[in-house]
Specification:
disordered N terminus, binds magnesium ion, 2 helices, five-stranded antiparallel sheet, 9% helix, Jelly Rolls, single chain, mainly beta
Length: 269
């Protein structure tokens, strides 16, 4: 009788313990945003120059022949082989090229390079329009996705407070820039991005993480920063096994005036 009671007790206790396991809260976007410390503001010097002789010119002001429409991000996340997103007739990049400048067409969605890259040095110039409106993340939001996966944030971070790890030059929702070297709306900004692609173990986890160094208007803002995984708006970074991938530029859905790009080139390393 005592034995039966004890066995019954054990089941009850076991059952109670199982019911006591905490249920993790549902992730919200605020959970991965930190506001302090805010990066110190640094006024940049001048940055002008022509591409080096061995650069692959991705945009020189004339056309989008090096670009295509990017596939839906949900498709990308499911697939590991980025090479299947090759260009096709239907995938023409439909952003606006005028007066040597490339401007985001928000209705047309993201665009990406036709060519895929591993390790690289990327130079890209971008401008927030003078008539920009909105605040925080809804003010000139765009982004440069490294290998189609890891977003370096583009935003108007000039007199525009937002979470530190969502400022211009942040590895989005991961690492804030070391300083804020932003130029005011209407002036051209420059990113020089040196990127080392990750390597993977056979189980799909990182053997070595992706690493990035970034100069914003000639000022160091990311110094050998290890990227932890994907850069989602909601949720934690995820590790997705991948090979070479394109450079993708973001057409963000905010209602502020679209930003522009010029002088985009890349050197394979
Ligand atoms: Mg963005």
């Amino acid at each position: 009788m005592i034995t039966i009671l004890c066995i019954t007790c054990a089941f009850v206790v076991h059952g109670q313990n199982a019911n006591k396991y905490p249920i993790p809260p549902t992730m919200t976007h605020e959970m991965t945003e930190f506001w302090t410390p805010q990066p110190k503001i640094v006024a940049p010097g001048s940055t002008t120059g022509l591409p080096p002789s061995d650069a692959i010119i991705l945009f020189n002001g004339s056309d989008l022949s090096q670009w295509e429409k990017a596939p839906d991000k949900s498709v990308l996340i499911k697939g590991k082989d980025l090479s299947k997103f090759k260009s096709s007739e239907k995938n023409n990049a439909l952003w606006i090229v005028e007066d040597g400048i490339l401007t985001v067409n928000k209705e047309a969605g993201d665009i990406q390079t036709i060519q895929s890259f591993g390790d690289f040095q990327l130079h890209i110039e971008w401008r927030i329009p003078e008539n920009i409106s909105g605040e925080s993340q809804l003010r000139g939001n765009s982004g440069v996705f490294l290998q189609n996966i890891y977003e370096v944030q583009i935003l108007d971070s000039y007199n525009n407070e937002t979470y530190a790890n969502g400022q211009s030059g942040s590895i989005y929702k991961q690492t804030a820039p070391l300083v804020n070297a932003m130029r005011p709306p209407g002036e051209w900004n420059v990113f020089d991005i040196i990127y080392t692609a990750p390597t993977f173990k056979s189980d799909g986890t990182y053997r070595s993480r992706p690493v990035v160094t970034i100069l914003h208007n000639g000022v160091l803002i990311q110094n050998n920063t290890q990227i932890l995984g994907t850069t989602p708006y909601i949720g934690l970074p995820q590790v997705i096994e991948h090979g070479k991938g394109p450079i993708r530029l973001q057409a963000h859905g905010d209602e502020s005036a679209p930003i522009s790009f010029r002088n985009i080139w890349i050197r394979e390393l």
